[in-house]
User: What shape does this take?
Amino acid sequence: MNYKSVTEKNWLFKQYDENYAKKIYETFHFSEILSKIISIRKIELDQIENFINPTIKKNIPNPNSIKDMDIATSTAISHIQKKNIIGIFGDYDVDGATSAAILAKYFKQINQPFEFLIPDRIKDGYGPNEKGFDFLINKGSKLIITVDCGISSHMAILHARNKSIETIVIDHHQGDVKLPEATAIVNPNRINDESKLSYLCAAGVCFMFLVSLNNKLRNLDWFKLNNVNEPDILNFLDLVSLGTVCDVVPIVGLNRAIVKQGLKVLGRRKNIGLKTLYDNSKINSQPNAYHLGYIIGPKINAGGRVGKSTYGTEILISENQERVDYLAKRLNDFNEYRKKIEFELFRKIENETKDSKDPILFVQGRDFHEGIIGIAASRIKDKYNKPCVIISINGNIGKGSARSVFGFDIGAIFISAVQNKILINGGGHKMAGGFSINIDNIEVFKEFLIKKYNSLFIEKDNCKTLYLDSIILPTALNTEFYNNINVLSPFGTGNPEPKFLIEDLKLANSNIVGNQHIKAIFYSKNNNVVKAIAFNSIGTVLESYLVKNNKSSMSIAGTLTSNNYNGKNNIEFVINDISVNNI
Assistant: This one.
């Protein structure tokens, strides 16, 4: 059948080895479609069991394979043995909040005094600064650990060193060849790191740090000598999984085990901050990666974006229910405000980018909200499948945020722009980054980015291709089929949700939900009902085919989702694209 995508995408079915799919089917007695999808993903036969049931024990390497890990843990132990206060300096996003909370909760459990600081995005900017370090030093900190930041913080770390304060950097962002003069820099994205763990987020690196630290303390008999119960590091996996999902790092290797096992820990509801956010969100089903990335994460993030930056970390640490209830309410309020100004900014930016022929969408404006430009860039990138850069200008300085597509390493390119003196500062990782720039260099920077993009010979057609796993019947929208496919979860970068196609449907009715989404009901030739939703489709080409009284026969492409409503499990189809037979 010839599919005519309304978004002008080319629909292609993924290639796979039918003989290998048959071998999987015969070996594991999976369903034919599950065997097919595993074959598409080219998972080796001896790795399939670990892929479906990944455990930390099977997937975790020696933490000391990360460069400087041994130095970092030895340094931390020397301060723990002296009962010195340890300062924690984190970033204001979810990865930073969870990283700071992981260390803080561990220190609480071993009765180690600590202080933490999350900088204000607008007042303080990104990363360690002398003012923030002085705050921790004045609180008595003798060691400062930076989490999810610090790899480029030369001046702040030198400032601490001049005051005889040791520093440990735990980060995952890409840095320059010249590194800060910290006591230890634990970052699997260091140029000279050979751990092959570059896909970890900061929370994942913090988890590895605690595994190493805990092992060393045990070997020193520190727990027995100090009459302290040894913490179970695995109980922190709910926080590690939250940081991993929200930082959109690849769900492969150790990350896959972290998220899979972390969701189980979250389901035990031991962290009262997460439990309260979960309950207040009225989620009635077992937690999954979608809940972390799209419901819980944005609320924690909202404090750093438009509210009070410390709230996200504090709610994850606090054990006082009254305080947690207050923080949860404030974070929810911040998130609603974030949604409002994000929607307004998105609409404004969308009007400027919708007709752009540039390979990179580049937008600048006076006083765009700095806490929102990143998430707006993410939505624009998702809509047009192009890298998006948004700059908020205040005076002669622009603060920018960017989101990228697979194959265009935005973090490395920003570092290159700093080296070329185009940016004042900047960095990030493969899919996201931030920077500061003098407004006189904005056009130079735009040309620099486009030149870099074109030099990479990225397959342009990929941007207009929707890859599908299989055709399914409308009757496949049931719990049994969903659970069958869901054994491949958690899904995310590196392990995308399977995309399916349902053919020859007629629209029965539709309605707008949440101001941005469209719920639709289709029926097939055999009068089977298909319940579907198209997220963020208001104002897109999908709206014109879903809201109007459309009598056309159409096929829909997308993924499956499970909703629990009034105690009943409902399987819905999430529409990514539509093909209409007679357009």
